[in-house]
Design brief:
Radius of gyration: 19 Å
Number of strands: 0
Structural class: mainly alpha
Oligomer: single chain
Helix content: 55-70%
Number of domains: 1
Order of helices and strands: HHHHH
Shape: extended
């Protein structure tokens, strides 16, 4: 965690050397976004999906990966359909693991 925080600080520190008065602070409407419909709706949905993902991760649920994948799609204020790729990859991995588990239980 310290390495991740240090890397993030190292990579973002140079922005302090520039004038940020014209920096855009709004995430914009995006291509497919709840934020474009309602920032409050986006906040409620993003916070709820983050809470579900956190609870499932703490409980070490086998569905935690799916909750995190959904959070990757619902969490950012500006979403593109390519974010669905995170969920699709997770589903493929889950199906492969289940197939391997069934094969090992059959032996």
């Amino acid at each position: 965690m310290a390495i991740a925080i240090g890397s993030a600080a190292l990579l973002t520190a140079p922005i302090l050397l520039f004038d940020l008065t014209d920096y855009v602070r709004s995430p914009g409407t995006g291509l497919l976004s709840l934020y474009a419909v309602s920032p409050v709706l986006w906040l409620v949905v993003a916070a709820s999906s983050a809470a579900v993902a956190l609870v499932l991760a703490v409980r070490r649920s086998p569905w935690a990966w799916l909750a995190v994948a959904v959070l990757m799609f619902l969490g950012p204020p500006r979403v593109t359909t390519s974010y669905l790729g995170f969920i699709l990859v997770a589903v493929v991995v889950m199906l492969e693991e289940r197939r391997q588990l069934r094969a090992s239980n059959a032996d």
